[in-house]
């Protein structure tokens, strides 16, 4: 198999990604594969002797110490890679070279495997130079979005640990994620491979006495590694008088900051800096040490921990999910949560018996065994084979047709069956689809799920064009009338809001204005808009902004309705009018003011005439059923129910003629 490993970093750089790529390359070559490494070239680099390593020019970012930023487009390099005739591309980064890897994979129609080595959300402090919570949130959201996009563009995806896999799933990546821990050439870290003389030389160089315990950190000297936490711990180690020294092996942007911290804490005789060392010398530094320490909680796998274990070193580490399989309390190492606790754990180790320390060293070596590089190769090869098999089943875009504000794509399937799918303009432009473009079965299924959303979005636009809708109305319609999944429905609603097609505040203002014109009271307005899903707080805010027309509207409504209440007593008219005002949505306070302002003088003058009409109608209605006293009593009760005065009722009934009188 001809494989291209694309990485932003590679040897002689010393970091987890560079080591992982190198180990993978060695194992692939050892098993008969042809492997090319496409990586960056620092400004200071004068050339590359290895014909299987292609270096891309870039700009070294001093703040990120050693990281080289390169363009994602390299025409000359692309032509060279085209001549290599690769079978598969394996990207080990998401940016710079990683983008170039995706371009090459798309243009050459190759399967793309991605390994997600770095928890970028733990590195946002490099762009958040003003230490703003808002900037940090935006940066972390951008990391999630980009990670999801890169994951979706890969044929297969690898995470070096379960912790990383769970993080990626949390970003919303849908595809299968293989957990493949990076392997090590364990024999390289065998303590027997470093001579006694070399160990003495290292310890003497950093003034470590024979009776002193040397605890070493190996890695990038940067903020995310929390080395300051360890140095503070050694402040307590010195106070406790423990015979220990800390050796920091590596370099990075925080080197000067940490050296100043050591001076401020008066630890220059206790904490030593070895600086940057060649990869070939790193095992000897482990072998010259008695223990390994790191306070980092940003690791995706923790390769230096595994290297230390393979070297027979007990570990001191802060609790982290990725270390659960590596650090077993008092068996392969110790956990600490504070700098002071680190000192206490070191004291506990120093006081352990020689036999217990010997057993811990043996446990450490045994714990590293599952990370053998040959096992790493077998797992990676399985992912490669799966990627090639899946890629062979990809669909090819045959035709693209714009249709209003979406795109119709026609594809040929592996079985030569033609299918078509609608995609949004946003998806079309972001994905770079064109004729001849290949899509996997997984991607097609994703587009088909999104197609439901495209159709649903168009339906929503048609509904909104006829009549304004609230967020809840659209959401309810989508859940009840489409097969869209909840996440797609949420995106549709968000998109409609972004484009201003749904605007609950604007809807509320228009609705309040319209209902006020029809003399609707605020209580009824509130009830109606709550049914539409508008938040009570928003409704009340809009009502507060409106002119104080509630009382005048209520009076207008009452004056409009009052004439329609006929042949009723004044008492009944007032009761009915009050009920109508309540139904119309006016408050008790407003109704009280309205009723006090209404003039019922004319109604009182004509009340006897109204009573007479009511009594005559009642008599006519009930005389078919009753007669004599029973009829008179029924009419009496009816008039009383209408709110007329009892004495007035007697007077009117006496005026009337009754059959079958006593």
Explain how this protein is built.
This protein is 50% helix and 14% strand. The protein starts with a strand and ends in a 7-residue tail after the last helix. α1 crosses α13 and α21 packs across α23. A hairpin with a 5-residue loop joins β17 (406-412) and β18. The chain is an alpha/beta fold and 662 residues long. It has 27 helices and 19 strands. The model is unreliable at 61-67 and 120-130 (pLDDT under 50). The strands form four sheets. Strands 3-2-1-6-7-8-9 form a seven-stranded parallel β-sheet, sandwiched between helices. A six-stranded parallel β-sheet has the order 12-11-10-13-14-15, sandwiched between helices.
Write the layout of secondary structure elements.
Layout: E1 2-6, H1 16-30, E2 34-41, E3 53-57, E4 59-61, E5 67-69, H2 75-84, E6 88-91, H3 97-108, E7 112-115, H4 133-152, E8 156-159, H5 162-170, E9 177-179, H6 196-205, E10 213-218, H7 227-239, E11 244-249, H8 255-264, E12 271-275, H9 282-287, E13 291-294, H10 303-310, E14 315-317, E15 333-335, H11 339-351, H12 354-367, H13 373-392, E16 395-403, E17 406-412, E18 418-424, H14 425-431, E19 438-439, H15 441-466, H16 471-481, H17 486-498, H18 504-517, H19 522-531, H20 536-545, H21 550-561, H22 570-583, H23 588-597, H24 601-605, H25 607-622, H26 628-641, H27 646-655
Parallel strand pairs: 1-2, 1-6, 2-3, 6-7, 7-8, 8-9, 10-11, 10-13, 11-12, 13-14, 14-15
Antiparallel strand pairs: 4-5, 16-17, 16-19, 17-18
Helix pairs in contact: 1-13, 7-11, 10-12, 15-17, 16-17, 18-20, 19-20, 21-23, 25-26, 25-27, 26-27
């Amino acid at each position: 198999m001809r494989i291209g490993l694309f990485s932003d970093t590679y040897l002689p750089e010393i970091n987890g990604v560079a080591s992982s790529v190198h180990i993978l390359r060695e194992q692939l070559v050892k098993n008969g594969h042809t492997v090319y490494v496409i990586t960056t070239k620092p400004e200071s680099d004068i050339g590359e002797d290895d014909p299987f390593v292609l270096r891309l020019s870039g700009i070294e970012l001093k703040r990120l110490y050693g990281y080289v930023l390169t363009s994602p487009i390299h025409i000359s390099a692309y032509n060279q890679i085209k001549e290599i005739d690769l079978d598969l591309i394996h990207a080990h980064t998401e940016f710079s070279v990683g983008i170039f890897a995706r371009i090459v994979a798309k243009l050459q129609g190759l399967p793309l495997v991605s390994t997600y080595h770095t928890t970028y959300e733990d590195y946002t402090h490099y762009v958040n130079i003003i230490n703003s919570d808002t900037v940090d949130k935006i940066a972390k959201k951008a990391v999630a979005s980009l990670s999801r996009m890169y994951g979706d563009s890969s044929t297969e995806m690898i995470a070096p640990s379960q912790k990383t896999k769970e993080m990626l799933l949390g970003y919303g990546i849908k595809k299968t994620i293989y957990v493949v821990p990076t392997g090590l050439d364990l024999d390289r870290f065998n303590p027997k491979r470093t001579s006694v003389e070399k160990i003495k030389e290292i310890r003497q160089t950093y003034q470590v006495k024979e009776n002193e315990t040397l605890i070493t950190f190996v890695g990038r000297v940067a903020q995310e590694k929390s080395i300051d936490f360890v140095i503070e711990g050694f402040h307590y180690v010195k106070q406790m008088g423990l015979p220990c020294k800390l050796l920091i092996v590596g370099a990075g942007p925080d080197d000067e900051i940490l050296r100043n911290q050591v001076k401020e804490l008066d630890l220059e005789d206790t904490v030593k800096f070895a600086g940057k060392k060649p990869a070939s010398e790193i095992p000897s530094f482990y072998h010259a040490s008695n223990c390994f320490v790191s306070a980092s909680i940003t690791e995706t796998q923790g390769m230096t921990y595994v290297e230390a274990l393979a070297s027979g070193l007990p570990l001191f580490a802060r609790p982290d999910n990725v270390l659960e399989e590596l650090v077993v309390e008092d068996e392969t190492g110790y956990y600490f949560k504070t700098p002071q606790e680190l000192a206490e754990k070191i004291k506990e180790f120093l006081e352990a018996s020689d036999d217990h320390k010997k057993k811990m060293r043996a446990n450490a070596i045994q714990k590293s065994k599952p990370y053998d590089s040959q096992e790493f190769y077998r797992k990676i090869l399985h992912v490669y084979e799966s990627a090639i098999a899946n890629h062979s089943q990809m669909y090819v875009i045959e035709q693209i047709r714009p249709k209003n504000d979406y795109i119709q794509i026609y594809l040929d399937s592996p079985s030569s069956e033609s299918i078509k799918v609608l995609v949004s303009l946003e998806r079309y432009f972001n994905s770079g689809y064109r004729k001849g473009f290949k899509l996997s079965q997984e991607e097609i299924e994703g587009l088909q799920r999104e197609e439901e959303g495209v159709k649903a979005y168009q339906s929503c636009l048609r509904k909104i064009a006829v009549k304004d809708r609230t967020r809840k109305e659209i959401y309810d319609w989508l859940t009840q009338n489409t097969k869209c999944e909840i996440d797609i429905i949420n995106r549709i609603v968000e998109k409609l809001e972004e484009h201003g097609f749904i605007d609950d505040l604007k809807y509320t203002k228009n609705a309040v204005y319209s209902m006020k014109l029809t003399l609707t009271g605020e209580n009824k307005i509130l009830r109606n808009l709550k049914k539409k899903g508008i938040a009570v707080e928003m409704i009340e805010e809009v009502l507060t902004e409106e002119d104080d027309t509630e009382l005048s509207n209520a009076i207008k409504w009452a004056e409009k309705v009052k004439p329609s209440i006929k042949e009723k007593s004044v008492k009944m008219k007032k009761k009915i009018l009050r009920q109508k005002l309540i139904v119309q949505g006016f408050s008790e306070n407003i109704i009280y003011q309205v009723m006090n302002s209404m003039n019922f003088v004319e109604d009182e003058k004509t009340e006897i005439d109204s009573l007479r009409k009511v009594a005559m109608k009642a008599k006519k209605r009930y005389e078919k059923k009753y007669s004599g006293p029973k009829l008179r009593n029924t009419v009496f009760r009816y008039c009383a129910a209408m709110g007329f005065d009892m004495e007035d009722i007697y007077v009117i009934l006496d005026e009337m003629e009754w059959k079958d009188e006593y």
